[in-house]
Model the fold of this input.
Amino acid sequence: MGALFGFDPSLPYAERAARLVAARVALWDVVGQCRRIGSRDDAIARDSIVINDINALITSHSTLTRIVTNGTLASRLFRRHHWANLPEAVRARLGHYPAPSTSPAHASRPFAEKLALWRSAFGLPPTADEGRCKI
Done:
């Protein structure tokens, strides 16, 4: 988020949150709770997943313009539990933009490539360096 919106990711949490609010970005986890050993998504016990009520958030905030999900599992769970249940008019207003996982465990893509994909998911123009990057 810091690289996307121009702030130092080592800032205190409250200041990072304020920077995201200023950029009109809200963060919300698809998964509210689960059991897992380690940090990888494939370590999540699938029967332990409790989904957050993102549809309530979406329907109560009509100024939302897009949903960007972080990684394959979040994208799949969002589509399964939320996207199909939203009214067509809300889906038309929003759009769902999956982005690659930001986890260090997902190292198959270099940072510059991930950043370019995230910029695209947020509808941000590519930087000069990203324009030369093959995705």
In short: Strands lie at 31-33, 50-51, 67-70, 96-99. Residues 101 and 130 are 18 Å apart (CA to CA).
